[in-house]
Specification:
Structural class: mainly alpha
Strand content: under 5%
Keywords: Coiled coil
Coiled coil: 5-32
Number of helices: 3
Shape: globular
Number of strands: 0
Number of domains: 1
Largest sheet: none
Order of helices and strands: HHH
Length: 74
């Protein structure tokens, strides 16, 4: 299973690079397609009993859905 997880990690890194390039080019359609591919990878990993915690964090970071934690000093 380790080889499968390594391949997933490599593919996610590749997708993140392509996402950065698509955003730099302001290609929203490509960004959407790449995010869908990332979601599909996470789904495949989950169905294969791979821990997807870090992958889901990557997806949250890429989609801007990170939770906002209030400043305790305010």
């Amino acid at each position: 299973m380790r080889g499968f997880e390594t391949a997933l990690d490599e593919r996610i890194a590749e997708l993140r690079q392509k996402l950065a390039e698509a955003r730099a080019d302001e290609d929203e359609h490509l960004v959407d397609v790449l995010l869908q591919q990332l979601e599909t990878l996470i789904d495949v990993a989950s169905r294969s009993d791979v821990d997807t915690t870090q992958m889901e964090a990557v997806l949250a970071a890429e989609t801007g859905t990170l939770p906002i934690i209030p400043d305790p000093q305010t």
